[in-house]
TrEMBL record:
The lineage of its organism: Bacteria, Bacillati, Bacillota, Bacilli, Bacillales. GO terms for cellular component: plasma membrane. It is a multi-pass membrane protein. This is DoxX family protein. It is found in: Cell membrane. Belongs to the DoxX family. It holds the Pfam family DoxX. It comes from Staphylococcus equorum.
C-alpha cells in the first residue's frame, strides 16, 4: 500500500512540475491570455503556473502533500469545467485521472504530518 501511494505521489508531482515548468519558463503569456478570455484577472495565470511548478516539486518531496493536493484539485476542477468537459470524455480523462490521484493522496496521508516519507 505504501509503495503504491508513493508511486502515485511521485507521478503526480512529476506531471505538475512538467506542466508548470512549461507555463513558468514559457513566460505565462498563453496562460494569461486564457485567463483573460475566461474573464479572470490575468495574474491568476501567473499564480496557476507557479503553483503547479512549485507544488509539483513539493509533492515529489512529500512536503505538505495533502494541502498541495487540495490546490491541485481546485486547478483540475477549474480546467475540467472551463475547458475540457465541453470537449467530451476523451479530452477530459487525463484531468479526471489527476483528480482521482489527488483524492487518493488526501485519503492516504495524514493531515498532521508536514512531510511524507512514503
Amino acid at each position: 500500500m505504501k509503495a503504491g501511494i508513493l508511486l502515485i505521489r511521485l507521478m503526480l508531482g512529476l506531471t505538475f512540475v512538467v506542466h508548470g515548468s512549461q507555463k513558468v519558463f514559457g513566460g505565462f503569456v498563453e496562460l494569461m491570455q486564457m485567463m483573460q478570455g475566461l474573464g479572470l484577472p490575468t495574474f491568476f495565470g501567473v499564480l496557476l503556473g507557479l503553483f503547479e511548478f512549485i507544488g509539483g516539486i513539493l509533492m515529489i518531496l512529500g512536503v505538505l502533500s495533502n494541502y498541495i493536493a487540495v490546490g491541485f484539485i481546485a486547478i483540475m476542477l477549474g480546467a475540467l469545467f472551463t475547458v475540457h468537459l465541453s470537449q467530451g470524455y476523451i479530452a477530459s480523462e487525463f484531468v479526471i485521472t489527476l483528480l482521482i490521484m489527488n483524492i487518493a493522496i488526501i485519503l492516504s496521508y495524514s493531515w498532521k504530518k508536514l512531510i511524507q516519507f512514503y
